[in-house]
## 1
Amino acid sequence: MKKTKKKTLIIVIISVVIVLALAISAFFIIKSMNNEETQADSNGVVGKVSAGWNTGLPEESKKSTESSSSGTQIPGYGTAKMKAGDTQLHLSIGNPKENNCGFYATLQLEDGTVLYKSELLKPGYGLTEVPLQQTLKKGTYDAEVFYECVTLDEEQSPLNSAKSKFKLVVN
Amino acid sequence: MKTRKILALSMAVATVATVSTAAFAAELTPSSQTGNTEVTANIQDPGAVNYTITIPDKVDFGTLTQPETDTDSFKDVNFTVTATKIENLSDNNRVAVAVKDKDATVDDDQFYITQKTSPNTKLMYLVYDTDTIGESDNHLAEGEMGNDGYNFAYFKNQGQSATGTIRLNQKQLYGKDIAEIAGDYSGTMVFTSSILTF
């Protein structure tokens, strides 16, 4: 009888220790995943526009900063990749902080199919994970971000605009 | 004795599990060397910004003057497009920039400014890819407009720029009722950029 009680106690202790170990492990794993998300979101929250967006390119020289004061800086792209059926695309869309105007950004295919349209992006605002209005099938598409530039006053008068074309590869 | 062994073993398992997960977490810390390597790789990731160009923010001819005679009266204004930043462009690649009027169509591929209060009142202007217009220079719309507009510049290196000129012939205003044509005009151009391989 005494032996059985002792066995039960051992099993309980072992169970508690294992559960404790698993709990500690789970805590660190979740913590590390959160750290990873924070790093990835440094240029924008998933699906949401956030402040602190930047092009990710090296800081420009003083000379190029001066020249940008009389114009509007437009981001350009080479390619973007996603999987068929994905509902979001990793693409850095935003308004460089050096600008003095607002952007309305539209991600679209060359045939005019709109995949995403942003709210007003003030200088320094943007996103890196773009929620898509529709999924795409496997293939390579001609895509573009249409940056419609407007004044930052209440009128939001149209300024010169730009399109940045790139290849969208869907695997 | 047996109990002590089992307890010691289970404590050891728990300790190893905790230490190994803490090490896993450390590898993902942004300040670690591994993290920096990943950030470097991310810069070259598809979906990253590869370049920025700077375009003129608006078409601005300033104040126009109605000529007293039916003769050419040009008003020229320079504009510049600059490759502000370029990253990881291959030797055989160029950033190509084309331009067209925002409302350009196959049937009407010219450039216009429009009276704000009366959109049907338009003034046509010409766009040149040179900073000074010579007699032999053709304006862009004399060529064939592609899907993206008229080819304007090709950039290879950061800091390169191309200067163009917009020209409005004020002769268009001659003989018109000043009360009808007076007011603010505006027009917008669309600059399309892409990376081309040569």
Note: The two ends of chain B are 79 Å apart (CA to CA).
## 2
Amino acid sequence: MFGTVNNYLSSVLSATDDYDGEALGTHISLRDVHVQNHNLYIAQPEKLVERFLKPPIDEVVSAHLKVLYQLAQEPPNYMEAYTQQAAACGAVVRLLQSLKDENWCLPLMYRVCLDLRYLAQACEKRCRGFTPGHVLEKAADCMMACFRVCAADGRASEEDTKRLGMMNLVNQLFKVYFRINKLHLCKPLIRAIENCVFKDSFPLPEQITYKYFVGRRAMFDSNYQGAVEDLSFAFTNCPDRFASNKRLILIYLVPVKMLLGYLPAKSLLQRYDLLLFHDLALALKAGNVKRFDEIVRDHELVLIRSGIYLLVEKLKFMVYRNLFKKVFIIRQTHQLDMDDFLAALQFVGVTDVSLNEAHCIIANLIYDGKIKGYISHAHNKLVVSKQNPFPPLISL
Amino acid sequence: MAQVKGSCQSFCPDGESKMRIREKLLHYFELKNGQKNTPGVLVKEFTRSAADAKMPQAKDMRTEQSLTKTVEYLLKDIILDTRKPYNVVYDFIFDRLRAVRREIVIQMFDARQTIRLLEPIVMFLAYSRYRLSVESIEKFDPKICNQHLQECLTGVLCCYEELDRQSSTTTEEPTLRQLERRCYIEGLYQMFNLGSPESFVRALTLPDYVRQDATFRLCFGICLSYQQGNLYRVLMGLPQLPHILCAVASIKLQGIRRSLLQIFTHAYNNKQLTVPAPYLLRLLLIDSPAGLQEQCRHYNLALTPDRKSVLFNKTDFRQSAETLSCRHEPFVESKLARIYLPEVLLLKKI
């Protein structure tokens, strides 16, 4: 594509003159076909570029050509390519600042930041000599500079404000922060979006990504109600053709909902190849503590990698609750012998359990409101309420 | 900045020794037999990097060997010195070890060197955190100690990770002893951060040899139970931990007792029925009826007149009460009494 550098540069120039941000974005994208054009691999393109373009856009383009040059080396020099991309990002910041009341160049910014993140990830994967996460963190700093310019553009009208670019950047930053495990840095970004007057007019795809990450963060903060709301929004609005994305959302949505007392439908799990949760749900329903532990152990790695191990472990007391409810149903009385609960635990295969532990587990369930009643230590009995002794979990 | 490599062979560089002897700035433990103005063994003091301070030179920095010897001297000779109360001993060692830590940074030691020096420092801080937890705030500030302990721990953990990364490129195998030490320190990190999701997630992603280590698994089991909310298992697990780990874990004990008592006020909530004291003593790891009475008084739980059982009432529990302060638990004390402290702190035997 473009053939010569001159052709390429004049094409960039006309995109700039037309205020065509999308086209400009394509011109500096690392995913566009032009990156295969060998004529564009130039180590020092500044002089040439300056003849066509005005600052600061010339810096962006020069840096982009240098990135192409570094990536064309054998082997590709990712670290240097990243440095040049960061320079491009810096130039974009200056470009944004120089354009008052205009936001046509936002697509350019999206593209530069996206490629910056990809390059940082490539460095993390292939280069050595720095602590892991360091390059990504630096990349996040560059994106933050863009974000600050966008967030501060409060005076322009709603169509022209650069604040419209905030959510795209926030999503990029989320991706970095989740990868380097610095979730606390998400907080100010969320606040900035939530305080935005037109937060519902961001493009739907961006909102879906945003809600997905905000939901996951709420999950880590043990704010399960909030997590369900955000993740459900993401799931219902995500179009069906993005099955892998829907699956990703479900990996978090399903266990959080389980924790709130909703069991997932098998057909749904089947469609997204998540039958692991079906097995878990069956064990949970049956109150089979041993089976539950086995499933968790067998899928330990998957659960750890997706970051839901801890969440799934928190379901354990619900398994106990369901088992103990079965004891109540069998006995048909409101005064239940504590030894029956111990026997039930032993029946499902929990061997290392004592009467004292059974007491403590039930005490915990009462404290959480999952069982209504009290324990009489002297009679070794659990006395449950006449009304609704095991309130439905969704009502808690 | 160029790397400075220390050349000083003693505990304290000559320049500092001369200055401090001249200015009579010696600590009690640096005087010969405690006599006034008679210098004994001096150890380099901690000083902050400041704009007016000169760039440290090679002769002001100790060699790695000399740093190791310094740590050994402090944790062998000084720590057993009983002429002064332990909080004075702690202040002295804390300061001198901080100087060691500073030199690790300035001299840019590699992961292996850093681990060797930091591990004993972690052990010392952990031990002191427990031992001094009963002192008043004027004598010991647990918050500052926590901060430094956490800082040293994360420092060591980062070095372990670096070694993990290097292990794919080098053939140098860690010795069994080094692995054993790592497992112990990883366990210590878990117990010190009991209840924190971040540290728990770390435990899940550690290399297999750590996760399969018996001591580490014990710690992991306790943390998992804690996350699940099964305080019974946490309490039953604590006394099984070895010495220093047990001591660090016991710092959390009062909080766990409080939570369990609060749960019991709901579970055993009844105007007539009581719960026998021996049962509570066993579950809460309290050794004497007096200990239980103290808890009851503090959280406003009623005892029966014969003091042999407790009446739980969920509305009476004093939510506003601060958690009782740490104490020296007999099951920890008996473990600590059986060890030779320097050996354990220097991780010669764990």
Note: The mean pLDDT of chain B is 92.
## 3
Amino acid sequence: MNDIFNLKRFLNLFRQLYYEKGKSLLLGFGLLVLISSFIMSTAIFEPETYFVFRWAILGIVVFGGVHLFIYILFKQTFKDDEKLASLLTIPNSNFEKWFFQSICVVIISFIILLLTFKGLEITLFYVLENYSIDKYLSLPEPYLPIEHYKDKVLVFLGFTYLSCIYYMIDLSQGIINKRIKIWIYPTIFIAFNYLLKYLFFKDTLAKSSWFQYPFTDFFFKNESEKHEDYLVTTGLSFVEIGAYILLPILLLSLAIYYFKLKEKEV
Amino acid sequence: MITFKDYHFYYKKDKPLFRQFNFELEKGKVYGLFGENGSGKTTLLNAICGLNFPKKGELLVNNFKPKERRPLFLREVFFVPDSIKLPKVKKNHFLAIYSVYYPNFSHSDFNHYLKAFSISDNEKPFELSFGQQKKFYLAFALACNTSLILMDEPTNGLDIPSKNQFRKILASFMNDEKIIIISTHQARDLEQVIDHILVLNKNELLVNQSVYEITDKVAFNFYSSKPVYMDQVVMCEETIGGYKVMEKNTEQVQTELDIEQLVNACFLVPDMIKKSLKN
């Protein structure tokens, strides 16, 4: 067992990450927070604009941020043969190396995504309820049955994580020029799509449901009556997140990356 | 102990790099690995530490298959590559991260080697020059006290005093339980510490003999004029003021091994070398 997994050895990989890439990751995270904060601040002045920005955040900040995170994490590792040799000859088992990188890519990037949207949701509620957080806090735990929004959620998250895995493998093969394409095309597509919709249909935008991002299933009445009946959806329970998203992605990541690392040669 | 059994390796199937290698490398020796550019020196080092896998046959290092890259195997092997770029971490963080992997790592040895290389008081090794970074890494590699150390061009980038220090450190570092394999083109830098010669030439291991065995069979002499009788001469090179001659050691007088001339002869007259070094 010691040859496959040893906790002390495994935790040392995190120590290595902290010492070697801690500053870059903090910088990346800082940028993510900065851009998110800027976009969130628009909600205070123009909630309608904010709805459009919400999708921009989805495409650029979160999706791009996740990729930035992975890029910082793996850029050095797979940059050249020397770096790769260093990774492969460090006395951790293949399993430990794979598990560590899976945690970094799948779990941490998922947490970034989840936290960002939770932040957006709270901000939106806060603004629309005349800057009061009390009502948000008093809401029962909201949750939407997966059947209603399953497709949207799964398509988005599935695409995000598949691209993460693809991105990681891409880097591991030293092909990094393609990495931008993987997220910039859908981001531009989504952003343009919603920009056009906002420009031509902004009067009906607030009442329509198709632009809502599925995050939490609750309705609330806006007391200012300026914006009625917003539907803010969170989508999935933790069990569903685990069963429908995390587990398959983890297994997929395992299947692809573990064997790649094990078979990797210099 | 490193064992090659019917070992084959290639990058492209139609261009084999190593064909049917069958040999053993024993503990307690410093091996010098020589060969032309592209002859596969680095590839062989990579194979020994598990960075590439045999295409056919078997390779065993300390009874482990390197391709499995097990932690118990990796913690007893240290590979010093030709080109080194240290991670951007302070010295104490570098040690905190990497020394824990090696159970025999010695802080006092590490400090001793750093002092010998005159880089003991730098807290940010990644800011050092290439040569100094290399010395830092060499000091770390040796302080890990692994049973097998592989070095690819270790003296590249080292200044003259450091090369001297490196030789001294290597000499003091060796014991009967360790194997050091050094791949280099700078034969003169390490002539005094290498005690076994390996020469790769055209898909085969042309020379695999100790310095003693080689100098027992061939002599390296210098003559002011070209030898008249060439029967015993393996190779004769004109040089400043005379001729460097590698010849069969008929008089049974051991001369100092000239690695450069030996390796040169391996490329120019491989058949003669095979014949001369035959047991």
Note: Chain A touches chain B through 24 residues (CB under 8 Å).
